[in-house]
Amino acid sequence: MSLLELAGVGKQFRGLRALSDVDMSVSEGEIVGVIGPNGAGKTTLFNVICGALKPDSGRVRFAGDDVTGRRPEVLARAGMVRTFQLMRPFASMSVAENVSLAAQHHTRGAARLRGHAMDVVDRVGLAEWAHRPATELPTAGLKRLELARALAAGPRVLLLDEVLAGLLPAEREPVLDLLAELRERDGTTLVFIEHIMAAVMRLSDRVVVLDQGAVLATGTPDEVTADPRVIDAYLGEEPTTHADA
Amino acid sequence: MIVRKLIAAASTGLLLVTAGCGGSAPSGAAGDAAGSGSGPVRIGALHPVSGSMAVDGLQMRRGAQLAVEKINEAGGIASLGGRDVQLTTADTQGKPEIGQSEAQRLISGGAVGLVGTYQSSVSSNVSVVAERNEVPFVMDVTAADEIFQHGYRYSFRVQPGNGAIATSAAEFLTKVSEQAGKPVRKVAIMHEQTDFGTGAADAFTEAATDLGLEVAPRISYDATTASDFTSQITQVKASGADVLAVSGYYSDSLLIAQAINAVKPDLDAVWGVSNGAYDQPKFVSDAGPIGENYFSTNYHFDAQNPETRQLREEYQRRYGAPMRTGAVLAYDAVQTIAAGVEHAGSTDPVAVRNAIAKVKVDPLTVGDGPVRFGRDGENVNSAAVLMQIQNGRVKQVYPPRKAESDPDYSVAW
Amino acid sequence: MTATIDSEPRASVNLAVLKRAGMVGVLVAAAVVFALLKSGSGIVVWQSVVTGLLTGGLYGLIAMGLTLIFGVLDIVNFAHGAMLAVAMFISFGVVQATGLHPYLTMLVTVPALFLVGAAVHRGLLSGSGGATLENQLLITLGLSLLLENGLLMFFGAEPKNVTLPGETQFGVFGAVVSGSRLYAFLGAIALGLLLYWMLQHTRLGTAVRAVASNGPGAELVGINVRRIHTLTFAIGAACAGAAAALAVPLLSVTPTLGEQFNITAFVVVVLGGMGNVVGALVGGLLIGLVEQLTTIYLDGQSSLLGVFVVFVLVLFLRPQGLFGRRT
Amino acid sequence: MTDTATTGAAGATRATAAQAGTAPPLRPQNRQLLILAVLVLLAIPLPLILPPAQGAVAVRILIFLIMAVGWNIMSGFGGLFSFGHAAYFGLGAYTSAYLLVEHGVSPWVGMAAGMAVAAAVAMVIGYFSFRYNLKGAYFALATFAFAEMLRLVTTSTDAVNGAVGYQVPLIQGSSVWQLQFPAGSPAYFWIALVLAGLAVAVSILFRHSHAGRYVVAIRDDELAAASVGAPVMRHKLLTVALSAAITAIAGAFYTQYYLFIDPQLAFGSSVSIEAIVTAVIGGIGTIWGPVVGAVIVGSLSDVTATLLATPPEFLGFLQGRSGLDVILYAVMLILIVRLMPKGIFGTLAGKISERRRR
């Protein structure tokens, strides 16, 4: 049974059709990559799934419930957690506070909460920064903080919006390992938007290609990269397979 | 470590409190001689000498000061072996809470009685302080009548209250209009909507109705925001009223005069009731010819009394401005307290209060006799007088024994 | 399948505005009819409408400078009323000292307020300290307290009055209009048109509009944004200067007179759509009417109450103003 | 607008402690509560030391303090900039005065009722403002409009005595239940001190509670907070309700202390401005900012009044002038916003923590 299911989802902004008739299905424990050229509607898709935007048409189902138009916090508490492409830390808080905030809806007791937050901080490799103001983090650190905060929220499905962008190649490896481990150890379902094709190829069970707000192709990584429509959509430019695209 | 730092910061804060408070120590330091057998007898004067009422407040403070000087020139308090009287002053800033704390300060400084405060809301607060400290409080200017409904024993008032003035205004209106052969039948009234204007309008309406007049329309307005009264005056014109009564503050009353001049309603007279403008020399100069023949019923300095004239000349000479009625009332209020001390032969505030309740003092403001207080603390002989602007001067015109000239029951347009 | 941008043609925008203007017109007409039923006197209602429109012109006049500042700089200038009061004191002082015709004091108040505005912007509001909206609000609030109490300290609170030489009355189908109010009204319209023309047809105006719609973009095409901001703030303040000279014969000049106009001006700005000069004028007229009709509808209530009710409704339902577009 | 500084300091302390392997230091809320307790204890003897007129100033400071703490919860922690806190102050004042004068209800009950009424009204205003997504200046103007509407309506409503307002009836002797004591009694100060202490304690506990952290997170980034499960609407409403209830305490106590209230005193815009200025001068969004601000603003008018009554020679021209206190605090407000946007306390705390880290 699919954990997350979109049927006929559409969204317009002042005449700009950002999403049209998107169907998509993600099974429990699956890792799905979402790719597409800039402006294809990937982030809008996430916003609609997570409740930040209401779709104009279509339904979103999560764990069997119709959750279309539910508020983001309700979905987050149900286990649908996302990260932001442009990092949005809570500027007045330290790294650890950012993380523990995300965990506080499912963890009781100050000591346990702090322990849990420190574990997550440690897991993403930010232990040294734990008590520094989040705004002092460099870009790579902020990316990890996004991830840490999402992890702390207790995700069933994790929607990751370009978690690798802005990271040096050497910094990407541990993140990719962590994501793989998430599924292995915690059984978390992952949906991730990514431009770096090597990562998509390596992690994804399945890839969804968006173009101009619509699903262009779905399939295994190898299938979609071979699909001529996908190649066309990237303006004939073959999606890079090099890690440093 | 950080705890210690913060505690240090906190104690600095406390020091600041003490320093801040210490700042005003000189004003409270005079309290030692409170009520004792030597030194001058202190009378506290509370007026708004800063803020939007500062001009009147300063006038009143000076009026009180002139009274004190007069008493001392005449040899001080005879029953206390000629002890001098001293005025201790305080600025209410026109704010009730400041008035309250300043009243407290004057009392702890040894004041045997208080005068003030020009504004009803401040007087309300000060009357409470006076009651709780058992120190007499003689109000010079305070319009609101509510203060005298609490049964306070230590509150007195020299001026006629809002209701009393409005009642007189209705009486004068019927008499003057009958004399002129144009008996009034229907009066329109405009009033500002706070307690001052509403109270006056209520009392006026009641008295006029009792005298058989029809009061309509009755129009209230917000004096702080109104900037044009043309529609209201048009409404008055359309109603066919003979007379327009106006109970307002200065600026709004001036705007009403301008609107009357524009609309030119078919009236026999414009009738100020406790009006803040129509008996003021400033109105005469601001409004010019359009204010001519306006009537106003209000408390007023007694223009017929030679002593009052002398006092006002003295004021004019010293301060270069005409003395307003409020200042003359402050003068009367100080005289009243001084008479109380004289009568009591003591500076014990309670004794002074009991003496004040019995004294008779000839006022320099218009009254039906000496200042004498009833059980409720109101001056039983307080009286309002009708004034009219005639040839660019404010003149007393009614009742006849106080009249400087005859009323001219007409309008100038 | 393809994503498209509806390039809303100009005509349809104008049509929408016309439609909305029509709706407002119907609402106003209905309100007037109800007032007529309530008061029962045609002449009273007619006078109320005339007075409302004239007073409304004054509100629009004061709000124009505010809306310009609000629209271009995104600053809620709480000191606008206080600056108006400063200008009125200047006007009063000049009339007292030189006996100049009150309207001619504009020659002094406009440049004076222009300089005050420029100085306030350069000194207090530009740069990082004046960056956030809250900070700007607090700074202009502080400034208004400073100006008002400065006036109070040096000139006292006694109301001061200026009379217009040769004041006359006009009859308008039975309603009465005093000359000074009519001139102020006409002055408001003239000033509105002047500002509109300046914004639409001068290089400065074009730059101001560019900065208003896209600051960083304007910077890229070589516009000195900070300079435009200062100029706009100064022009906005100068509008208060012009308004003061036109209004000085109508009002008693006191240090706190700005307060009563400040809040009304904000209502007008929000109603007309921020940054919309013509909207401010129309909004002013509407608020003038609302005030007058409130006194007919709600006997014994302050006319300001109706203004606030309209304000809250507009804030909730059309925060972009009657003639603005939701962004 | 942030309190990075304080949390930064806390973090630094924790880190050093962890490195040194010593016992964990106090949690921030316990440390702050401890400081509060010390401050309250230090303040207890004040009314016995100060001359009576200054005792009145001290009570005024405490009233300012409660107001500013209330405002700070909504506008500092919550980032919802209120320009109309007079509404809640006034509702507290009027509810308690109405119940006392018309129905003889104890001011304590009146205070509780006032808190409830203020909280309810705040939630209604808040609900509509959030529902219609009013932000920044628009939100500020809306709160202002509601406070002004309350002032206008009370002014013309006879059921609450219109413009006359209420005078609290005097009783013989003193009574804690009636919250009335002889003039100048230190009991007023002590009761205000307890109320102010409670208000600060609530603000400390709230700031460090789950709800309080959500509120701060929502202020920092509403969508990000929602995305990790922070219930946005509920917490915004909670914040405005708590803020209004605390402000209402100040209003109810004001009525009992000054024994008089009218629409202008209760709902006038100067009340809102006093709440804002106090918190901003001290340090917006910090626990101690309102405390520092209240001490400064509260004593300022007394100092300037003295200065104006008996000015030193070089200030002789100031005699009898008014408005100096407001001018001073307006200048202070502008300078602080320009130069130390975290307020006096926030900036000092930031400096200290910076030095510690180095």
TrEMBL record, chain A:
One annotated GO biological process:
L-isoleucine import across plasma membrane
- Entry keyword set: ATP-binding, Nucleotide-binding, Transport
Q: Looking at the Swiss-Prot or TrEMBL record, what is one Pfam family this protein matches?
A: ABC_tran
Which Gene Ontology molecular function entries are recorded, alphabetically? ATP binding; ATP hydrolysis activity; L-isoleucine transmembrane transporter activity; L-phenylalanine transmembrane transporter activity; L-valine transmembrane transporter activity
Pinpoint the ABC transporter domain residues: 4-237
- GO CC list: plasma membrane
Gene3D superfamilies given in the database record:
P-loop containing nucleotide triphosphate hydrolases (3.40.50.300)
Q: Which CDD domains match?
A: ABC_Mj1267_LivG_branched
What name appears for this protein in its UniProt entry? Branched-chain amino acid transport system ATP-binding protein
Lineage per the UniProt record: Bacteria, Bacillati, Actinomycetota, Actinomycetes, Pseudonocardiales
From TrEMBL, chain B:
Segments forming domain Leucine-binding protein: 40-392
Signal peptide limits: 1-29
Name the UniProt key words of this record, in alphabetical order: Signal
Q: Which family does it belong to?
A: Belongs to the leucine-binding protein family.
Q: What is this protein called?
A: Branched-chain amino acid transport system substrate-binding protein
In which organism is this protein found?
Prauserella rugosa
TrEMBL record, chain D:
Q: Which GO terms describe its cellular component?
A: plasma membrane
The protein's matches in CDD domains, at most eight in alphabetical order, are given as: TM_PBP1_LivM_like
Domain of life (superkingdom): Bacteria
| Record's compositionally biased regions (Low complexity) | 1-23
Q: Where is this region: Disordered?
A: 1-24
Alphabetically ordered keywords of this record: Cell membrane, Membrane, Transmembrane, Transmembrane helix
Q: Which residue ranges does UniProt annotate as crossing the membrane?
A: 33-50, 62-88, 108-130, 137-154, 187-206, 237-259
What does the record give under GO molecular function? branched-chain amino acid transmembrane transporter activity
UniProt membrane topology term: Multi-pass membrane protein
From the Swiss-Prot or TrEMBL record, state where the protein is found: Cell membrane
The primary location reported for this protein is: membrane
Tell me the PANTHER family matching this sequence. Answer: HIGH-AFFINITY BRANCHED-CHAIN AMINO ACID TRANSPORT PROTEIN BRAE, HIGH-AFFINITY BRANCHED-CHAIN AMINO ACID TRANSPORT SYSTEM PERMEASE
Question: What is the protein name stated in its UniProt record?
Answer: Branched-chain amino acid transport system permease protein
**Organism, per UniProt?**
Prauserella rugosa
